[in-house]
C-alpha cells in the first residue's frame, strides 16, 4: 500500500510540474480574475508577530508574501508538491528579502518536524484542495499539525448551487482542463472533522456558491 501511495504521489508531482512549468510565469497575473476570496482569507488570519503560518499548496508564494505584509513578524512556511512552483516562490522571496521555509512534498504527509517546528498557529489552504486527490487526507494532516488555539483558513471553489446551471457546467468543464475539481461536500466534511475535534467552524459563501471560505478554530 505504501508503495502504491508513493507512486501515486510521484505521479501527481510530475503532473503538477508539467502543468505549472509554463504557467508559473503568468500564474499570479491570471488567477486574480477567478480565484476570489484569497485576500479576505489572508485578512482573516488575525495573526500576531512571532506566530507561525503554514500554507499548504503555497504555489508562487503570493499569499504568504501578502500575509507577512499585513501581519509583520510571522514565521512563514510553505509546502507544495510542485518543485516548479517552489522555485518561483523561493526566487520571489529572495528578491523581496523575506525569510520563509519551503518544503516540497505531499500535503497529506505534512509534518511540522519537516519545517523544524512543533506545530503551526495558522494554516492556510487557498484553492489547493480542489487540486489534491486526497483532499480529506490533507485536511486531517492540517488538523494534526495545528497548535492548540490555532486556526485553519480555507478558500476554494464551492458547489455553485446559486448560479445558473449552464454557468456551473461550463465552469466545471473549464476547471477540469487544469485538473481542478470543486469539493462540493467540503463544508460538510469540515463540520464533521471540527465536531470530532471540538473546534468551531465558520463558513462563508462567495458569489452564490462560486467559492466558499471556512475557518476552523478552537
Automatic annotation (TrEMBL):
Record-annotated Methyltransferase domain positions: 54-150
Pfam families given in the database record: Methyltransf_25
Methyltransferase found in the keyword field: yes
GO molecular function (one): methyltransferase activity
Domain of life from the UniProt record: Bacteria
Methyltransferase listed as a keyword: yes
GO BP annotations listed: methylation
Assigned keywords, A-Z: Methyltransferase, Transferase
Matches recorded under PANTHER family: TRANS-ACONITATE 2-METHYLTRANSFERASE, TRANS-ACONITATE 2-METHYLTRANSFERASE-RELATED
Protein name in the entry: Class I SAM-dependent methyltransferase
Organism: Ectorhizobium quercum
